[in-house]
Amino acid sequence: MNVIETINLQKHYQIGDNSVLAVDGIDLNVKEGEFVCISGRSGSGKSTLLSLLAGLESPTGGEVRLLGQHLEEMNEQERGRFRRAHIGFIFQAYNLLPQFNAWENVAVPLEIRGIPLQERKEKSMEALEMVGLTDHAEHRPTEMSGGQQQRISIARAIITRPDIVFADEPTGNLDTRTGTEIMSLLTDLFRRWGTTFLVVSHDEDMHRYTDREIRLKDGKIEKVIVQ
Ligand SMILES: Nc1ncnc2c1ncn2[C@@H]1O[C@H](COP(=O)(O)OP(=O)(O)O)[C@@H](O)[C@H]1O
Ligand SMILES: [Mg+2]
């Protein structure tokens, strides 16, 4: 089954006289459990494509279907609900809340769902265990290294066991060794669970972890490399 399908997907940005086709006619199919790396130079449209696929931004042309459902046929509220039920997101800059400690950050998706405190804490501790950070549960983001903060953001992304995880440059702020640890952690978990995984990176080595590399250039697919 195709978990992700796009048809002639486009995103056009207009700022004053400046017009950019950030995503320019992408046709993409991703199967259940597949790992795909989206590569290409800075400005090639990787982040825009990921935002369109995750329903964070709306396309100016074409279609996105996730798990057989058209994103553009949903209203804002339905899209939000669909995202929270099926999608996890990991960012380069971790995007943790500074006023919350580790387990509270991990629990945010459960809080949005109205799950009671005790259950939130238990589930967060389980997710922290999966990323090897139970001993940092009470630490705030500023008290942790970049690699530890990224583990917290991974725990937050997986706490709802999403069907699809999108990661935008998840190792971009990390040294090589920590980046390798983070990618091993992610791929081990997702292979075990059969999670569909799309990772954006301009790291040359990222293809080692994925089944297929899709290289973008000027918003178009330049090359597809099957590993
Ligand atoms: N919100 C935005 N408004 C205007 N232009 C944008 C916006 N986001 C991205 N772009 C433009 O779209 C192109 C692709 O950007 P992006 O998807 O961020 O590339 P990448 O992630 O590969 O570096 C770039 O030319 C960028 O300047
Ligand atoms: Mg980007």
Automatic annotation (TrEMBL):
Keywords: ATP-binding, Nucleotide-binding, Transport. Gene3D superfamilies: P-loop containing nucleotide triphosphate hydrolases. GO terms for molecular function: ATP binding. Residues 4-226 form the ABC transporter domain. The keyword Hydrolase does not apply. Pfam families: ABC_tran. InterPro entries: AAA+_ATPase, ABC_transporter-like_ATP-bd, ABC_transporter-like_CS, MacB-like_ATP-bd, P-loop_NTPase. The keyword Zinc does not apply. Belongs to the ABC transporter superfamily. This is ABC transporter ATP-binding protein.
